[in-house]
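Standup notes
- DV: blocked on the single-chain target, sequence here:
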Amino acid sequence: MKKHLLLPIVLLSLVFTSCEKDSEVETTTVAVPVTQSIAEFRASVDVMEAKSIKESGKIYAWKNYIFINDKNEGVHIIDNTDPFHPENIQFIKIPRNTDIAIKDDKLYANHGMDLVVFDLTDMNKIVETARIKDVFPNYFMAAPEGATYVEFGDFNASNQVIIGYVMETKKKEQDVNIMWESVDVFNNAAREGGNTGTGGSMARFSIVDNYLYIADEMKLSVFDITNTDPRLLNSQNAGWQIETIFHYEGHLYLGSTTGMYIYGLEDPAAPQQLSNLRHVMGCDPVVVKDNYAYVTIRGGNACGQDFNQLDIVDLSDKRNPSIIETYEMNNPYGLGIKDNWLFVCDGDAGLKVYDIQNTPDLRLIDQFSNINTYDVIPLEDKLLMVGDNTLYQYSYKGNEINLISSFAIN
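- DV (later): unblocked, structure below
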């Protein structure tokens, strides 16, 4: 009997309605997976010459380099020795990659269900040095927008990986009860200080000392990265639809579509959940300074309701955080803090700069509204931002933010 697999609800919601028969044939748009064997998938990593970006994602800064994720494709490496003239120098092909972190010349990246490690000692000879298999069990790709459902056909999660989708128009099923067989993609037993970089608020990876913390949709995992081969120490259920992770002064702040989770690191190998703040449904990165967390909530599409806002959270009691102020936003993504400035990537409304000296009362002091923004990293000497496949760099001069360069990754 032909079987269908059900995606987790975080990725796809299937709704079937009965239709009255009429003379016209009704059609619907179906997503059909493009698959690859697990063996071929694991062998597909490659270090290549520089290439154009397809869709810019998260950014990461390390030494004089900027790493820009090409969503589900890999990582572009930008030589930023001269911020006025950055240079696209290499591309690491890592299918199904969305996140990286770097410490001591080691780059850690997700490759579908695996964690892979690259040696950056010689930037002209980057090599894969380690692979920890099956640490990200939920590796289904989200179905593309516009698909009514995914037709899995003969897809077998025990030996195949979904690397994309093609859209097909098919006749609607009428007066038929379709049974979908669920598969546990979260537990698939069939499958087997230092030189640290800086990530943005959209990241799922965070390095603290010799520990790599990774948040996937439901779990918080801890890896010991003291040696060449990372070692998984702990993996615990963290909630539902976890999206981002941020470290600040001995605590981890996890953003999810329904709230913010706070973990203490008294035992860094086994983080302890201190509290869970609930908020309206929406995609939400988090940054923290002093006793306040700044949380952007984006609605629409897969993010839930149509709320777009910036919440200010009082962290005076980390076991009992509370939202004390909310600011309306357009379509917010990443955010960052430097000194008394809060930078908010507000989608097509551009980059907003707030004075946070009197938090929770924020004052908008600047806005770059002619750009579409996604992720931002405030470094000590400059601000990095990415949006629409372009890297923007700004300088801090007194009380002003000035554009240094804009670099299209092509």
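- Follow-up: The two ends are 48 Å apart (CA to CA).
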